[in-house]
Amino acid sequence: MDEAQFQDKLKELVKEFGGATEAQYVSSLTKDNKNQKKLEKSISELQESLDYLRICIKYQLFDLEATRRENEYLRKILGGQDEQGPKQ
Known about the structure:
single chain
């Protein structure tokens, strides 16, 4: 869309909205654009936070499983010592 078509569309919209001037309309579009950028930034930050949370949860699950395996291994070792008696 070139500049002339944009101006024509803008004038049509101004007529549809009635008493709003071009400056007021452009101002409202600018505010909407700023709000949209702010919203996009917030969504991006939220997505990063969710990604970080997923990583933290995956690490916690990994650590839990490793701890369970280690506990099982240590219990087997201790169980074997109990059967043989304490080593001196």
